[in-house]
Specification:
The chain is built from two helices and six strands, in the order αββββαββ. The protein is of the alpha+beta class. The chain has one domain. A four-stranded antiparallel sheet has the order 2-3-6-5, covered by helices on one side. Helix 1 packs antiparallel against helix 2. The radius of gyration is 12 Å and the shape is globular. The two termini are 22 Å apart.
Amino acid sequence: MTNTEFFRQLVNNLNSGEVTLADSPRAVCPGQGGNQCYVSWNTAVGSMPEAFLFNAANKIFGTCFSPTFGSGFARNVVLNGGCVTECLSNRPNGC
C-alpha cells in the first residue's frame, strides 16, 4: 500500500465508531509497519468516540492532504465540545 492508501484506510476506520479514545494521547495511529499515519488534535477534550474525528479527517484528506508532504490540518474543529486543530500527518503531534 502507498502512504496515501494508508491514510485513506485510517480515515475510513475512524468512521466505524467502535472505539472510545482516552483523553491522552491525543493521536490515533493504526501502526502499519514503517508507514506511520496519525490523526491528532492539539487540545485535550476528554474521552470520546473515535468516530468524532472522522468528519474533519475526511475533509482534510479530500481537500488539502498532500501525499508529498504527508500532512494537512483543519482549524476550529469541534470535538467533544472543545475547539481544536485536527491534523493528518506522519507524526503523533504537530502538523
